[in-house]
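[Q] Does anyone have a clean structure-token version of this?
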Amino acid sequence: MSFSERIAAAASRNQTRTVLALDLEDPDPARLVKKSETMVRNVDDLICAVKINRQLVLALGLPTLANSILKLAKDLSLPTIMDAKLNDVGHTNEFMARIYFDSGFDAIIASPIAGWENGLDGVFEAAQSHGKGVLLLTYMSNPGAEAFYSLRARSGGVEKPVFEILAQLALDWNAQGVVVGATQPHVIARVRELVGQVPIYSPGIGAQGGDAQQALGAGATYLIVGRTIYTAANPRTAALSVRTPWSPDTRP
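[A] Here you go.
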């Protein structure tokens, strides 16, 4: 199965569209592993994937991460996403993608501003050879993102917001998803118009001010939720509060 099929299967099985952003921090690596694994086990039936940012990679190292949290997610049939936001030159992007895929990640987030030729072409080739997915960052969830992603630029002789150009690249490059902040429902709605059936992943729920129902109503497919869940006194209750059922006719 493709990455899109694997995450849809998990969403259907657990009747949820929530991706857990596992961004825990702790100066003690052993304690950090235990806390992270406990969090995943606590909500494993309420999420459809686990997204890991660079906090855990830097704190634990890939071998430890692969043998603990990634292995646990695989045992629980939960796909894993590496939030690498790849945006370097081609050989560096390809190397990082291969390392992450070989470590066990099922998909990777990359920034299309690197371009295709000697940019992300090798990342997509690595994903295809490994049977993995690539999600393209189209609009971030932080307030400062507007300065760049809503900037107008010319593409094909037409002036349009940068995020619309990036959304088109997701179609041109056959990405398996785009990332659009839940804090910008109007952007989600416009990206949905542009990308058709391509899944939209929306971070920024709760802690950053994004509203789950507004994001879904605008066209988001999956909600990426971190601090709202893992900093809650009762993570299961918090995960239940943002849980949205999945059905065969759910819009992508």
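[Q] Thanks! Anything notable?
[A] Strands lie at 18-21, 49-52, 80-86, 107-110, 133-139, 152-155, 158-161, 177-180, 200-203, 222-225.
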